[in-house]
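Hello again, I could really use a second opinion on something today. For a while now I've been wondering how a particular protein folds. Please have a think about how the structure follows from the sequence. Here's the protein in full, and shout if anything looks odd to you:

***
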Amino acid sequence: MTTPARDAIALFTTRFAAPPAAAASAPGRVNLIGEHTDYNGGPVLPMAIRVRTAAVAGPSDTWDLVTTMEPDPVRVDPAASLRRGWTDYVVGVIRVLRSMNAAPAAARLAVSSQVPVGAGLSSSAALCVSVTKALSLLAGVRLSPLEIAEAAFRAEHDEVGIKCGRMDQTVSAFAQRGSALLFETASGVIKKVPMPVKAWIAETGISHRLSGGDLNRRRHECEEALAMLRDKGFRINALAELPPNKLERALVGLPPPLNKRVRHVVTETARTRRAADMLVRKDLKGFGNLLVEGHNSLRDDYQSTVPEADFLVESAVRHGAYGARLSGAGWGGAVVILAPQERERRIVAEVSAEFERAYGRAPEMWSTPASGGVKREPV
Protein backbone atom coordinates (compact mmCIF):
# COMPACT_ATOMS: atom_id res chain seq x y z
CA MET A 1 0.00 0.00 0.00
CA THR A 2 1.28 3.44 -0.90
CA THR A 3 2.27 5.96 1.79
CA PRO A 4 3.00 9.68 1.64
CA ALA A 5 6.72 8.92 1.98
CA ARG A 6 6.69 6.54 -0.97
CA ASP A 7 4.64 8.99 -3.02
CA ALA A 8 7.03 11.82 -2.21
CA ILE A 9 10.07 9.69 -3.08
CA ALA A 10 8.50 8.67 -6.39
CA LEU A 11 7.65 12.28 -7.21
CA PHE A 12 11.13 13.49 -6.29
CA THR A 13 12.80 10.81 -8.41
CA THR A 14 10.56 11.55 -11.39
CA ARG A 15 10.84 15.33 -11.28
CA PHE A 16 14.51 15.64 -10.38
CA ALA A 17 15.90 12.49 -12.06
CA ALA A 18 17.68 11.41 -8.88
CA PRO A 19 16.72 9.79 -5.57
CA PRO A 20 16.35 11.92 -2.43
CA ALA A 21 18.94 11.79 0.34
CA ALA A 22 16.67 12.39 3.35
CA ALA A 23 13.02 11.81 4.19
CA ALA A 24 10.66 12.38 7.10
CA SER A 25 6.95 12.27 7.85
CA ALA A 26 4.77 13.90 10.47
CA PRO A 27 1.12 13.46 11.45
CA GLY A 28 -1.81 15.79 11.48
CA ARG A 29 -3.65 16.08 14.75
CA VAL A 30 -7.09 16.30 16.22
CA ASN A 31 -7.51 18.36 19.35
CA LEU A 32 -9.81 16.45 21.67
CA ILE A 33 -10.41 19.46 23.89
CA GLY A 34 -8.68 22.69 24.82
CA GLU A 35 -9.47 25.08 21.99
CA HIS A 36 -7.97 28.56 21.81
CA THR A 37 -6.28 27.94 25.15
CA ASP A 38 -2.75 27.38 23.84
CA TYR A 39 -2.02 31.00 22.93
CA ASN A 40 -3.75 32.05 26.16
CA GLY A 41 -1.39 30.07 28.42
CA GLY A 42 -3.72 27.14 29.06
CA PRO A 43 -3.69 23.37 28.55
CA VAL A 44 -4.62 21.45 25.41
CA LEU A 45 -5.38 17.76 24.89
CA PRO A 46 -4.56 16.76 21.30
CA MET A 47 -3.64 13.44 19.71
CA ALA A 48 -1.86 12.65 16.47
CA ILE A 49 -3.97 11.07 13.73
CA ARG A 50 -3.13 8.33 11.26
CA VAL A 51 -2.87 10.60 8.20
CA ARG A 52 0.57 12.07 7.60
CA THR A 53 2.61 14.46 5.49
CA ALA A 54 5.98 13.40 4.08
CA ALA A 55 8.86 15.57 2.89
CA VAL A 56 11.89 14.22 1.04
CA ALA A 57 14.96 16.25 0.16
CA GLY A 58 18.15 16.10 -1.87
CA PRO A 59 21.12 18.44 -2.34
CA SER A 60 21.04 21.19 -4.96
CA ASP A 61 22.42 24.60 -5.83
CA THR A 62 18.91 26.12 -5.79
CA TRP A 63 15.69 25.74 -3.82
CA ASP A 64 13.17 23.80 -5.92
CA LEU A 65 9.89 22.59 -4.41
CA VAL A 66 7.26 20.21 -5.70
CA THR A 67 4.16 18.58 -4.26
CA THR A 68 1.85 15.84 -5.47
CA MET A 69 -0.93 18.44 -5.57
CA GLU A 70 1.14 20.77 -7.80
CA PRO A 71 3.64 18.51 -9.61
CA ASP A 72 5.44 21.26 -11.49
CA PRO A 73 8.54 22.35 -9.54
CA VAL A 74 8.56 25.86 -8.07
CA ARG A 75 11.84 27.68 -7.50
CA VAL A 76 11.90 29.86 -4.41
CA ASP A 77 14.29 32.37 -2.92
CA PRO A 78 14.19 32.29 0.89
CA ALA A 79 15.27 35.95 0.95
CA ALA A 80 12.40 37.09 -1.27
CA SER A 81 8.86 38.07 -0.29
CA LEU A 82 6.40 35.31 0.48
CA ARG A 83 4.00 34.18 -2.25
CA ARG A 84 0.85 33.57 -0.14
CA GLY A 85 0.81 29.87 -0.96
CA TRP A 86 1.96 26.52 0.38
CA THR A 87 5.60 27.30 -0.42
CA ASP A 88 5.54 30.06 2.24
CA TYR A 89 5.57 27.40 4.96
CA VAL A 90 8.62 25.74 3.45
CA VAL A 91 10.38 29.08 3.06
CA GLY A 92 9.54 29.85 6.68
CA VAL A 93 11.16 26.60 7.77
CA ILE A 94 14.27 27.33 5.68
CA ARG A 95 14.64 30.76 7.27
CA VAL A 96 14.28 29.41 10.80
CA LEU A 97 16.67 26.50 10.20
CA ARG A 98 19.23 28.93 8.81
CA SER A 99 19.04 30.91 12.05
CA MET A 100 19.75 27.65 13.89
CA ASN A 101 22.62 26.65 11.58
CA ALA A 102 20.57 23.55 10.72
CA ALA A 103 19.69 24.16 7.05
CA PRO A 104 21.41 22.83 3.96
CA ALA A 105 22.89 25.39 1.57
CA ALA A 106 20.03 24.63 -0.85
CA ALA A 107 17.84 21.66 -1.66
CA ARG A 108 15.28 20.03 -3.86
CA LEU A 109 12.19 19.07 -1.89
CA ALA A 110 9.12 16.95 -2.66
CA VAL A 111 6.03 16.81 -0.46
CA SER A 112 3.08 14.43 -0.32
CA SER A 113 0.27 14.62 2.20
CA GLN A 114 -2.79 12.68 3.34
CA VAL A 115 -3.86 15.43 5.77
CA PRO A 116 -6.91 17.30 4.45
CA VAL A 117 -6.21 20.99 3.94
CA GLY A 118 -8.60 23.36 5.69
CA ALA A 119 -10.21 20.63 7.80
CA GLY A 120 -8.82 21.82 11.12
CA LEU A 121 -6.48 18.81 11.34
CA SER A 122 -3.23 20.76 11.33
CA SER A 123 -2.08 20.21 7.77
CA SER A 124 0.24 23.24 8.03
CA ALA A 125 1.99 21.96 11.16
CA ALA A 126 2.40 18.48 9.63
CA LEU A 127 4.03 20.17 6.63
CA CYS A 128 6.34 22.36 8.71
CA VAL A 129 7.36 19.55 11.07
CA SER A 130 8.10 17.07 8.28
CA VAL A 131 10.05 19.66 6.27
CA THR A 132 12.01 20.68 9.38
CA LYS A 133 13.02 17.07 10.01
CA ALA A 134 13.88 16.31 6.36
CA LEU A 135 15.96 19.46 5.77
CA SER A 136 17.84 19.16 9.06
CA LEU A 137 18.63 15.53 8.21
CA LEU A 138 19.94 16.64 4.82
CA ALA A 139 22.12 19.21 6.61
CA GLY A 140 23.48 16.50 8.90
CA VAL A 141 22.01 18.10 12.02
CA ARG A 142 20.10 16.02 14.57
CA LEU A 143 17.32 18.07 16.16
CA SER A 144 15.40 17.03 19.27
CA PRO A 145 11.58 16.83 19.18
CA LEU A 146 11.50 20.10 21.14
CA GLU A 147 13.78 21.82 18.63
CA ILE A 148 11.71 20.49 15.72
CA ALA A 149 8.47 21.70 17.29
CA GLU A 150 9.92 25.13 18.04
CA ALA A 151 11.37 25.55 14.56
CA ALA A 152 8.06 24.58 12.94
CA PHE A 153 6.18 26.94 15.25
CA ARG A 154 8.48 29.85 14.44
CA ALA A 155 8.10 29.15 10.73
CA GLU A 156 4.32 29.33 10.90
CA HIS A 157 3.97 32.03 13.56
CA ASP A 158 6.88 34.38 12.89
CA GLU A 159 7.49 33.90 9.19
CA VAL A 160 4.07 33.10 7.67
CA GLY A 161 2.31 35.31 10.22
CA ILE A 162 -0.37 32.97 11.56
CA LYS A 163 -0.84 33.82 15.24
CA CYS A 164 -1.18 30.22 16.34
CA GLY A 165 -0.03 28.66 19.58
CA ARG A 166 2.45 25.79 19.89
CA MET A 167 -0.04 22.94 20.21
CA ASP A 168 -0.05 21.67 16.63
CA GLN A 169 3.70 21.54 16.18
CA THR A 170 4.21 20.03 19.64
CA VAL A 171 1.86 17.10 19.18
CA SER A 172 3.17 16.47 15.65
CA ALA A 173 6.71 16.22 17.06
CA PHE A 174 6.07 14.47 20.40
CA ALA A 175 3.05 12.19 19.84
CA GLN A 176 3.15 8.52 20.80
CA ARG A 177 0.86 5.71 19.71
CA GLY A 178 -2.07 5.03 22.01
CA SER A 179 -1.81 8.32 23.86
CA ALA A 180 -3.14 11.83 23.75
CA LEU A 181 -0.92 14.58 25.15
CA LEU A 182 -1.91 16.95 27.93
CA PHE A 183 0.27 19.92 27.03
CA GLU A 184 0.46 22.71 29.58
CA THR A 185 1.47 25.52 27.27
CA ALA A 186 2.52 27.95 30.02
CA SER A 187 5.05 25.58 31.58
CA GLY A 188 5.83 23.40 28.57
CA VAL A 189 5.06 20.26 30.58
CA ILE A 190 3.77 17.35 28.44
CA LYS A 191 1.97 14.39 30.00
CA LYS A 192 0.91 11.25 28.17
CA VAL A 193 -2.76 10.43 28.64
CA PRO A 194 -4.06 7.01 27.54
CA MET A 195 -6.49 7.24 24.63
CA PRO A 196 -8.27 3.86 24.75
CA VAL A 197 -10.65 4.38 21.83
CA LYS A 198 -10.37 5.68 18.31
CA ALA A 199 -11.82 9.01 17.34
CA TRP A 200 -14.14 9.59 14.40
CA ILE A 201 -13.47 12.62 12.24
CA ALA A 202 -16.42 14.22 10.43
CA GLU A 203 -15.36 16.89 7.96
CA THR A 204 -17.81 19.77 7.68
CA GLY A 205 -16.81 20.42 4.07
CA ILE A 206 -16.23 24.06 4.97
CA SER A 207 -12.58 24.91 4.51
CA HIS A 208 -11.02 27.51 6.74
CA ARG A 209 -8.04 29.75 6.10
CA LEU A 210 -6.32 30.81 9.29
CA SER A 211 -4.53 33.55 7.40
CA GLY A 212 -7.92 35.06 6.59
CA GLY A 213 -7.98 37.01 9.84
CA ASP A 214 -10.48 35.28 12.16
CA LEU A 215 -7.88 33.58 14.35
CA ASN A 216 -5.67 36.66 14.50
CA ARG A 217 -8.71 38.77 15.41
CA ARG A 218 -9.66 36.44 18.29
CA ARG A 219 -6.11 36.48 19.55
CA HIS A 220 -6.10 40.28 19.51
CA GLU A 221 -9.37 40.28 21.47
CA CYS A 222 -7.84 38.01 24.09
CA GLU A 223 -4.79 40.24 24.37
CA GLU A 224 -7.05 43.27 24.77
CA ALA A 225 -9.10 41.52 27.46
CA LEU A 226 -5.94 40.50 29.32
CA ALA A 227 -4.69 44.10 29.33
CA MET A 228 -8.03 45.33 30.70
CA LEU A 229 -8.06 42.72 33.46
CA ARG A 230 -4.54 43.60 34.50
CA ASP A 231 -5.53 47.26 34.61
CA LYS A 232 -8.35 46.21 36.97
CA GLY A 233 -5.81 44.63 39.31
CA PHE A 234 -5.83 40.98 38.28
CA ARG A 235 -2.26 39.74 38.58
CA ILE A 236 -2.20 37.30 35.68
CA ASN A 237 0.21 36.80 32.80
CA ALA A 238 -2.32 35.00 30.60
CA LEU A 239 -6.10 34.61 30.53
CA ALA A 240 -5.86 30.92 31.43
CA GLU A 241 -4.32 31.88 34.78
CA LEU A 242 -7.59 33.45 35.92
CA PRO A 243 -9.13 31.09 38.52
CA PRO A 244 -12.70 29.98 37.76
CA ASN A 245 -13.87 31.30 41.14
CA LYS A 246 -12.83 34.81 40.07
CA LEU A 247 -14.42 34.65 36.64
CA GLU A 248 -17.68 36.43 37.43
CA ARG A 249 -15.88 39.30 39.15
CA ALA A 250 -13.48 39.55 36.20
CA LEU A 251 -16.32 39.79 33.70
CA VAL A 252 -17.83 42.86 35.39
CA GLY A 253 -17.15 45.85 33.19
CA LEU A 254 -15.63 43.88 30.31
CA PRO A 255 -17.38 44.94 27.11
CA PRO A 256 -18.72 42.41 24.62
CA PRO A 257 -17.32 40.43 22.94
CA LEU A 258 -14.30 40.45 25.28
CA ASN A 259 -16.35 39.09 28.17
CA LYS A 260 -17.36 36.09 26.08
CA ARG A 261 -13.79 35.40 24.99
CA VAL A 262 -12.57 35.41 28.60
CA ARG A 263 -15.39 33.13 29.75
CA HIS A 264 -14.52 30.60 27.05
CA VAL A 265 -10.80 30.55 27.87
CA VAL A 266 -11.30 30.17 31.63
CA THR A 267 -13.98 27.49 31.41
CA GLU A 268 -12.17 25.62 28.62
CA THR A 269 -8.99 25.55 30.69
CA ALA A 270 -10.84 23.87 33.56
CA ARG A 271 -12.66 21.48 31.18
CA THR A 272 -9.42 20.34 29.57
CA ARG A 273 -7.76 19.33 32.82
CA ARG A 274 -10.92 17.54 33.95
CA ALA A 275 -11.13 15.76 30.60
CA ALA A 276 -7.57 14.42 30.94
CA ASP A 277 -8.44 13.03 34.37
CA MET A 278 -11.53 11.35 32.94
CA LEU A 279 -9.50 9.66 30.21
CA VAL A 280 -7.11 8.33 32.84
CA ARG A 281 -10.11 6.93 34.73
CA LYS A 282 -11.62 5.64 31.44
CA ASP A 283 -14.78 7.65 32.10
CA LEU A 284 -15.71 8.04 28.44
CA LYS A 285 -19.24 9.20 29.16
CA GLY A 286 -18.01 12.01 31.38
CA PHE A 287 -15.33 12.85 28.84
CA GLY A 288 -17.95 13.05 26.08
CA ASN A 289 -20.08 15.43 28.13
CA LEU A 290 -17.10 17.77 28.40
CA LEU A 291 -16.61 17.65 24.63
CA VAL A 292 -20.16 18.89 24.13
CA GLU A 293 -19.74 21.60 26.76
CA GLY A 294 -16.58 22.72 24.98
CA HIS A 295 -18.35 22.87 21.63
CA ASN A 296 -21.20 24.92 23.06
CA SER A 297 -18.65 27.36 24.47
CA LEU A 298 -16.98 27.64 21.06
CA ARG A 299 -20.38 28.29 19.51
CA ASP A 300 -21.71 30.80 22.03
CA ASP A 301 -18.68 32.48 23.62
CA TYR A 302 -15.87 32.20 21.08
CA GLN A 303 -18.22 32.31 18.09
CA SER A 304 -15.93 30.17 15.96
CA THR A 305 -18.21 27.34 14.85
CA VAL A 306 -20.22 26.97 11.64
CA PRO A 307 -23.79 25.61 11.26
CA GLU A 308 -22.50 22.38 9.70
CA ALA A 309 -20.35 21.68 12.76
CA ASP A 310 -23.22 22.46 15.15
CA PHE A 311 -25.43 20.07 13.17
CA LEU A 312 -22.88 17.24 13.29
CA VAL A 313 -22.38 17.60 17.05
CA GLU A 314 -26.10 17.66 17.82
CA SER A 315 -26.75 14.71 15.51
CA ALA A 316 -23.93 12.60 16.95
CA VAL A 317 -25.12 13.12 20.52
CA ARG A 318 -28.74 12.48 19.60
CA HIS A 319 -27.79 9.15 18.00
CA GLY A 320 -25.84 7.92 21.01
CA ALA A 321 -22.25 9.21 20.81
CA TYR A 322 -20.42 9.88 24.07
CA GLY A 323 -19.79 13.38 22.80
CA ALA A 324 -18.56 15.51 19.92
CA ARG A 325 -17.11 18.94 19.28
CA LEU A 326 -15.57 21.10 16.61
CA SER A 327 -11.82 20.56 16.61
CA GLY A 328 -9.26 23.07 15.46
CA ALA A 329 -9.38 26.83 15.25
CA GLY A 330 -12.87 26.84 13.72
CA TRP A 331 -14.74 28.75 11.03
CA GLY A 332 -14.93 25.44 9.19
CA GLY A 333 -12.90 22.30 9.63
CA ALA A 334 -13.87 19.02 11.24
CA VAL A 335 -15.80 17.59 14.17
CA VAL A 336 -14.35 14.90 16.44
CA ILE A 337 -16.82 12.25 17.62
CA LEU A 338 -16.34 9.65 20.36
CA ALA A 339 -18.82 6.80 20.31
CA PRO A 340 -19.30 3.44 22.06
CA GLN A 341 -17.29 0.89 20.08
CA GLU A 342 -20.18 -1.53 19.72
CA ARG A 343 -22.44 1.15 18.20
CA GLU A 344 -20.02 3.46 16.41
CA ARG A 345 -20.72 2.22 12.86
CA ARG A 346 -24.46 2.65 13.27
CA ILE A 347 -24.05 6.08 14.85
CA VAL A 348 -21.74 7.23 12.05
CA ALA A 349 -24.13 5.96 9.38
CA GLU A 350 -27.08 7.74 10.98
CA VAL A 351 -25.19 11.01 11.38
CA SER A 352 -24.00 10.85 7.77
CA ALA A 353 -27.51 10.19 6.44
CA GLU A 354 -29.01 12.99 8.53
CA PHE A 355 -26.34 15.45 7.38
CA GLU A 356 -26.90 14.50 3.73
CA ARG A 357 -30.63 15.10 4.07
CA ALA A 358 -29.97 18.52 5.53
CA TYR A 359 -27.12 19.70 3.28
CA GLY A 360 -27.46 17.62 0.13
CA ARG A 361 -24.07 15.95 0.49
CA ALA A 362 -22.56 13.28 2.72
CA PRO A 363 -19.73 14.38 5.03
CA GLU A 364 -16.34 12.70 4.83
CA MET A 365 -16.16 10.54 7.97
CA TRP A 366 -13.27 8.32 9.02
CA SER A 367 -11.71 6.96 12.18
CA THR A 368 -8.24 7.16 13.64
CA PRO A 369 -6.38 5.80 16.66
CA ALA A 370 -3.94 7.94 18.58
CA SER A 371 -0.84 7.74 16.41
CA GLY A 372 2.90 8.48 16.57
CA GLY A 373 4.76 11.70 15.85
CA VAL A 374 7.46 12.82 13.42
CA LYS A 375 9.88 10.15 12.21
CA ARG A 376 12.68 9.61 9.79
CA GLU A 377 11.65 7.66 6.72
CA PRO A 378 13.89 5.31 4.72
CA VAL A 379 15.02 6.49 1.29
Notes: The domain at 200-368 is CATH 3.30.70.890 (Alpha-Beta Plaits). DSSP finds eleven helices and twelve strands in the chain.
